[in-house]
Amino acid sequence: MSTAAKVAIVSGASQGLGLAFAQRLAAEGYNVLAFDIKHEVTTLEGVTGMVADVSNRADVERVVSKAATMGEIEVLINNAGAWKRTPVTNSWEQAISDWDDLMDTNLKGALTLSRTAIPHLKRAGGGFIFNVSSYYVLPAKSDGTNPPETDLYSASKWALNGFTESWAASLAKANIKVNGLCMGAVDTPMLRGLFPGNELPSGLSEKLIQSSDIAQQMVDVMNSGRTGENFGSWVGEPVSIGPQKPIHRRITG
Ligand SMILES: NC(=O)c1ccc[n+]([C@@H]2O[C@H](COP(=O)([O-])OP(=O)(O)OC[C@H]3O[C@@H](n4cnc5c(N)ncnc54)[C@H](O)[C@@H]3O)[C@@H](O)[C@H]2O)c1
């Protein structure tokens, strides 16, 4: 059995959910490489910070190379995400520019980081990839959760599902488990940014999901050994991983 340190990479980790994932993985004994485009992730015990843009391939290669010097890379959290309103009445030029902004981070970033890290996870004998999505992609729970004016953000999260499903199937033999975390409103700077002055209306904070609850859900998924699922969490309901869904087996392709 390898005695090398276990390494986890978390994107978009200077605040919010990414910071909570990084701190929790450090508490679980991982050497964590946490990076963010905005500013240096505070170096905490067990967490090494870097400034890097997940949509930039050279940056991603720098991140993964650094992580590989810290031990065996076993965990990858595709958390970095951008959000903005994209009304369909916007000009074509604006729509294409928004597409590039959102898809480059939310989708191409996850692809680039995963493709760079997966050979390392394979060498480590397996591991975990989490795609941080949104409950918008779980319409079976409640129709119509996709808010208007966020078509591109929603599309980026729906598309992440394609990665989660395909990678879970194609990486199963390598013992790499791939899951989506699909949460409702979590109290993070992104969510607070929706309100004037970044101030939550009184009483709302207590109702929101906390980042630490989602970090606990991540650990519960890892311990469950499940793969290829989208784990939802909804405001006002306890965050859990719920019962395993029936496995749909394809008979073609
Ligand atoms: N907060 C919520 O209610 C909520 C709900 C559903 C899904 N999510 C998803 O959770 C993830 C984390 O969201 P959050 O609420 O913590 O957001 P946040 O904005 O508070 O934090 C996201 C971090 O990602 C970083 N980032 C953005 N683009 C980047 C890039 N190109 N390269 C590297 N880092 C980049 C930002 O600088 C920021 O620090 C996102 O993918 C988001 O879409 C959040």
Describe this structure in words.
This protein has 253 residues and is α/β, with parallel strands linked by helices. The protein has a single domain, classed as Rossmann fold. It has seven helices and seven strands. The protein has helices at 16-27, 57-68, 92-123, 151-170, 189-192, 204-207, 211-224, and strands at 6-11, 31-36, 47-51, 72-78, 127-132, 176-183, 230-233. Strands 3-2-1-4-5-6-7 form a seven-stranded parallel β-sheet, sandwiched between helices. Helix 4 links the parallel strand 5 and strand 6. The termini are far apart. Bound molecules: nicotinamide-adenine-dinucleotide (NAD).
Q: Architecture, CATH level 2? A: 3-Layer(aba) Sandwich
Bound molecule kinds, no repeats: nicotinamide-adenine-dinucleotide
The CATH homologous superfamily name equals: NAD(P)-binding Rossmann-like Domain
Shape: globular
Specify the helix fraction band.
25-40%
**For this structure, what is the CATH class?**
Alpha Beta
What is the number of helices? 7
Rg over alpha carbons:
18 Å
Low-pLDDT sequence parts = none
The CATH topology turns out to be Rossmann fold
| Main beta-sheet strand count, sense and barrel state | 7 strands, parallel
End-to-end distance, in Å? 36 Å
